[in-house]
Write a structure and sequence with these properties.
With about 475 residues, the protein is an alpha/beta fold. The chain has two domains: about 120 residues, Urease, subunit C, domain 1 (Roll); about 350 residues, Alpha-Beta Barrel (TIM Barrel). Helix content is about 35%, strand content about 20%. The chain has 17 helices and 18 strands. The strands form three sheets. Strands 1, 2, 3, 4, 5, 16, 17 and 18 form an eight-stranded mixed sheet that branches. Strand 17 and strand 18 form a beta hairpin. Helix 5 packs parallel to helix 6, helix 7 runs parallel beside helix 8 and helix 9 runs antiparallel to helix 13. It is globular and about 65 Å long. The two termini are about 25 Å apart. The N terminus is likely disordered.
Length: about 475
């Protein structure tokens, strides 16, 4: 997956052109979720790839040589950030053979080849959804090449990545020689693997803390501790997949920086909430992913209009399980099709817990960062974020809170020097902005009413991005 010289040259020239231009956004309403600031009749000045001024128009005038973009009646926000995606997964029905084995219909090697070939398209679909930055929280070592390509491509989000997941369980079905999930059996293996990851300069190290009857919480805890100690010694933050309350508690007690899913097994308690606040943990709820496997398998998929319009049509076409050969149906899909209502009831029970927990944590001041787990079966790269917004609204979050989760809070999870300069509309921040046609503070559904996306100071009319 090597960058072609011509592509690199084109990107360099484009970046140079952008850096030479001054842009003034005028007459719009500025919404800065980082501070809950709303400024009507605002002016935002962009020079090079940065915002140089932002505020009320009466405070300053655009430079005479600036390109003027009239935002009358429109709303200007920071670009959205999806803090939980997986580029090694497409979102289609064949992307997790460890969950449902359909390799006789489509070999997994073919699936991965398709994913790599279509990365530019995947990048663009994030951009069309107003997502100017993403965090890939785990994949094969070729994830680091994905980051390199994305960050050298104009029409792509900024990308932070973790490498292979350090796991308590193995997933051999995903191993084509560069596995996305690596089972670690002892603390020295954990330390050695972190050292191997550190050579690639990861933005995060990810632990897949899977707990079941064969893998109790304490059986993997020393490995979690060793992984975190080794990572922190190298100033690398650690994100942990832990969906049970006691697993999440153990991960945070051992020093985790980020929890990448909601707690779904029981209500969070006061001690857990205090622990998260005391340790300044960032939690990414990934609400949408909890419904999409079951709904896909039960043929009850609820894609949003945004997903249907901006999701990859080839991916979406695979998600109709009724078109699979009857003799190739895995047992899990057969069971879901036989009793769809049972599947939907299980999903409802997950949300009964997860949505209440999200509201509890938000009300308590825990930092919540929006993320989707895009790439998993039925969770569409890019526009799945708007289903996440719907579910956050159902949990009781206000539009401003949801927007903060997807901008300023998400930037904290992105981290590093880039994270310090995205997610806000302030002097010195990257010019990654959205222009909306309608006010998302009136209804979070308006968050997808995108007129234009500005990434790294390049202005893309929304309707032109996929064409």
């Amino acid at each position: 997956m090597k960058l072609k010289t011509a592509l690199a040259l084109a990107v360099t020239l484009l970046a140079g052109m952008a850096n030479a231009e001054k842009i003034a956004l005028v007459n719009g309403t500025l919404i800065n979720p980082a501070t809950s600031q709303i400024v009507q009749d605002a002016t935002i000045i962009i020079k090079g790839d940065k915002i140089t001024s932002a505020g009320a128009a009466k405070a300053f005038s655009p430079p005479k040589d600036a390109r003027i973009i009239d935002c009358q009646g429109k709303f200007i926000l920071p670009g959205y950030i999806d803090t939980h995606v997986h580029f090694f997964q497409s979102g289609d029905l064949f992307t997790r053979p460890d969950v449902v084995d359909l390799t006789k219909v489509r070999p997994y090697a073919d699936e991965v080849a398709w994913i790599k070939k279509n990365l530019p398209d995947t990048f663009v679909r994030h951009l069309r959804s107003g997502i100017t930055s993403v965090v890939d929280v785990g994949g094969p070592f070729w994830n680091f090449e994905v980051r390199k390509i994305a960050n050298a491509t104009a029409k792509a989000p900024r990308v932070a990545v973790a490498g292979p997941l350090i796991s308590s369980v193995s997933r051999p079905q995903l191993d084509l020689g560069d596995p996305p999930i690596v089972k670690i059996d002892n603390t020295e293996q954990a330390r050695e693997f972190v050292r191997k990851l550190a050579a690639q300069n990861p933005d995060l190290v990810k632990i897949w803390y899977i707990v079941d009857k064969d893998h109790p919480v304490d059986s993997f805890r020393t490995i979690v501790r060793a992984t975190i100690e080794e990572s922190h010694a190298r100033k690398i933050r650690v994100a942990v997949h832990a969906t049970e309350l006691e697993t999440a508690r153990a991960a945070v007690e051992e020093g985790a920086d980020v929890l990448v899913h909601s707690v779904t097994d029981k209500p969070v308690d006061d001690a857990f909430v205090k622990l998260l606040n005391d340790r300044r943990i960032i939690l990414c709820p990934t609400l949408v992913v909890f419904e999409r496997y079951g709904r896909t398998f039960a043929s009850r998929l609820n894609l949003t209009p945004e997903e249907k319009a901006w999701g990859n049509p080839d991916v979406i076409a695979t998600l109709d399980v009724t078109k699979l050969p009857a003799d190739q149906l895995p047992e899990r899909i057969k069971t879901a099709l036989a009793d769809p209502n049972a599947t939907l009831e299980r999903i409802k029970k997950v949300y009964d817990v997860a949505l209440k927990n999200l509201k509890t944590l938000e009300d308590a001041g825990v930092t919540i960062a929006a993320g989707t787990d895009a790439g998993n079966i039925g969770t569409i790269h890019g526009p799945a974020l708007f289903r996440e917004f719907q579910l956050m609204k159902e949990a009781g979050l206000t539009p401003m809170q949801i927007l903060r989760c997807a901008t300023a809070n998400a930037a904290k999870l992105f981290g590093g020097e880039t994270g310090a300069h995205i997610g806000k509309i302030e002097n010195g921040c990257f010019a990654d902005l959205l222009i909306l046609r309608s006010n998302p503070l009136n209804d979070i559904a308006h968050a997808s009413d995108i007129d234009a996306v500005i990434k790294n100071s390049v202005v893309y009319p929304a309707d032109s991005i996929l064409h």
